[in-house]
């Protein structure tokens, strides 16, 4: 290599290291917070149930079947508590025993989480055993912190675009480390070296061994936080938005809607049912069909006229194109559910890595500054 080319390479490496340093110093704390909150949220429903035993399933509890009157009882109990005719409800079909989880959306709310009340009904649907506003208890507060820094849509944009910068941070770290000589030495941890070298090795190895998984978690987080970017990159099929026919004055029973949805997608597993209030919105049933990777938030829907009970539209992810199929993997890769309990535990552990990188990186930088001042 000529002297001129060697000098250009050296200048490039110095620039990359500076980019990595300043991105790390400016984004490191946010990266650590998102990592730690993400770790806590991997098992957030289980942790929340442990913190609030009233919603835990008891041994021997049997989940209500699709024909159980408990669903309509629960809706009636909820509407008796919150009486506004325009309010919307979502009931979750967990397939497990214990209280029935639900979400209550006042008609005045705007946005997915605005003025949202989390409600748990007794297994027979006759009582409300717990009701708390979204964001008003620990796990939902952590969720809002992780997704939007407690700052709504603006916070979600900050998280998303900061995630793009974090991807640059990860790539610049690899580029700054890339060995020019022995790979064995570049991958070694020198236990007998000076403290500043051990900090550097710990920082380096923590990043290297977690790099692939960190990149996946950050990239999928960006796509979740920036749906417009996901739409532009993947172009998933648009979910239908049909309307119920006008003139009806009596909403069909939930059990009828569940039966209709099951008949429309007989191999689907029903997960949520959205019940609208006054107006022409349809009943929306969300299902997991074979091949859809996410058990709790799948991507197939059946839309049912809330008055006549007729199927208005079906959105089946298996027939929605490649972009939809790819998009269906984003959440399950991000929350670690892709491989069951083992990958969820791995996701918890990876969430601690940004804190390790921040701590070792700052300590190494401070030691270097101190050493430079003493020269």
Keyword list:
8-stranded antiparallel beta sheet, single chain, elongated, 3 domains, 51% helix, 375 residues
Task: Tell me what the structure shows.
With 375 residues, this protein is of the alpha+beta class. The chain has three domains: 3-43 and 144-234 and 338-374, no CATH class; 53-136, no CATH class; 237-320, no CATH class. Helix content is 51%, strand content 12%. It is built from 13 helices and eight strands. It has an eight-stranded antiparallel β-sheet with strand order 4-3-2-1-5-6-7-8, with helices on one face. A hairpin with a 6-residue loop joins strand 7 (300-304) and strand 8. Helix 1 (3-41) packs across helix 13 and helix 7 (195-225) packs across helix 13. The radius of gyration is 25 Å and the shape is elongated. The model has no long low-confidence stretch (mean pLDDT 92). The chain crosses the membrane at residues 21-44, 158-178, 207-226, 345-366.
């Amino acid at each position: 290599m000529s002297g001129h080319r060697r000098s250009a390479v050296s200048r490039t490496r110095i620039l990359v290291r500076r980019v990595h340093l300043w991105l790390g110093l400016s984004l490191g704390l946010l990266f650590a917070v998102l990592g730690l909150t993400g770790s806590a949220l991997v098992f957030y429903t289980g942790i929340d149930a442990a913190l609030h035993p009233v919603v835990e399933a008891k041994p021997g509890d049997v989940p209500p079947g699709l024909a159980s009157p408990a669903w309509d009882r629960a809706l009636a109990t909820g509407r008796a508590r919150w009486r506004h005719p325009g309010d919307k409800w979502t009931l979750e079909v967990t397939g497990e025993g214990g209280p029935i989880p639900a979400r209550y959306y006042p008609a005045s709310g705007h946005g997915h989480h605005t003025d949202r009340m989390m409600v748990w009904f007794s297994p027979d649907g006759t009582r409300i055993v717990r009701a708390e506003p979204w964001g008003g208890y620990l796990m939902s507060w952590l969720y809002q912190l992780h997704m939007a820094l407690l700052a709504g849509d603006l916070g979600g944009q900050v998280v998303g675009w900061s995630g793009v910068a974090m991807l640059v941070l990860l790539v610049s770290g690899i580029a700054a480390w890339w060995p020019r000589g022995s790979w064995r030495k570049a991958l070694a941890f020198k236990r007998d070296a000076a403290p500043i070298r051990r900090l550097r090795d710990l920082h380096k190895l923590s990043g290297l061994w977690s790099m692939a998984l960190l990149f996946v978690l950050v990239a999928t987080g960006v796509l979740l936080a920036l749906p417009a970017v996901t739409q532009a990159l993947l172009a998933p099929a648009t979910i239908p938005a049909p309307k119920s026919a006008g003139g009806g004055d009596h909403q069909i029973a939930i059990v009828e809607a569940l039966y209709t949805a099951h008949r429309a997608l007989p191999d689907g597993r029903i997960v949520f049912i959205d019940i609208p209030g006054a107006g022409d919105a349809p009943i929306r049933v969300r299902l997991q069909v074979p091949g859809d990777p996410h058990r709790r938030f799948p991507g197939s829907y059946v839309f049912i006229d809330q008055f006549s009970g007729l199927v208005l539209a079906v959105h089946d992810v298996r027939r929605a194109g490649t972009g939809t199929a790819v998009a269906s993997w984003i959440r399950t890769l991000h929350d670690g559910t892709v491989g069951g309990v083992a990958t969820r535990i791995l996701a918890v552990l990876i969430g601690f890595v940004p804190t390790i990188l921040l701590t070792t990186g700052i300590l190494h930088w401070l030691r270097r500054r101190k050493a430079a001042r003493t020269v």
